[in-house]
């Protein structure tokens, strides 16, 4: 029997997750609008209008990547991948998307799949910047990336950044000086795991069995070996031997019931 797919609930308003999704949607809309504008004004509609703008969380070292593939049957696959964690403002979106569109133009319009940042690329970049002075198309994306997790080498002061707490300082050393110890520049929020116990174990006083067992052994020694005690004490115990034997019996029953719980 097929399971019915339950739709995911939308995050509550004014939460961090809701704000992140709203900002991502705004950036996606801005990028799509810019692509349509540049394709019409600069590239004269020669780039496929259905070119997919894929926002990726896996792009961590580059801001964008243009992809083009032509199969033996002549089917073209065109896509621009944009880094979600790096393109956090409109300026970076403009410059990065324009850069990748210039790559596509050299491959799709000029039919030169080997072109990288040569004359063809620079020609398209100049046309983009002429139509849109607020856009700067450089050969390489050079953005200062803000990492939530950073470590600093205590020897050479080199800083390493990551988007997750993925560096184990006990196993990793600095890659620059080779032997420097890395120190976190952030406060860890990891919870310390504590062993769990049952309700009965939590409610049971600690050391109950040990205390009863100790008293039992003490009384048993006194009864079985009265000669080990002073004469006055032994005579008193002999006169109350029945009471002591009763106490021992009660302790024995208590120990037996305690050991079963």
Keywords:
3 domains, three-stranded mixed sheet, alpha+beta, 42% helix, three-stranded antiparallel sheet, SprT-like_domain, 261 residues
Structure overview:
InterPro entries: SprT-like_domain. Pfam families: SprT-like. It comes from Pholiota conissans. Residues 28-185 form the SprT-like domain. The chain contains seven helices and six strands, in the order αβββααβββαααα. The longest helix has 26 residues, at 16-41. 14% of the residues are buried. The chain has helices at residues 16-41, 90-109, 119-131, 199-203, 208-224, 231-239, 241-260; strands at 52-56, 64-70, 76-83, 149-153, 159-162, 182-184. Residues 228-235 have low confidence and may be disordered. By secondary structure, it is an alpha+beta fold. The strands form two sheets. A three-stranded mixed β-sheet has the order 1-3-2, covered by helices on one side. The chain folds into three domains: 16-131, no CATH class; 147-190, no CATH class; 199-260, no CATH class.
SSE blueprint and pairings:
Layout: H1 16-41, E1 52-56, E2 64-70, E3 76-83, H2 90-109, H3 119-131, E4 149-153, E5 159-162, E6 182-184, H4 199-203, H5 208-224, H6 231-239, H7 241-260
Parallel strand pairs: 1-3
Antiparallel strand pairs: 2-3, 4-5, 4-6
Helix pairs in contact: 1-2, 2-3, 5-7
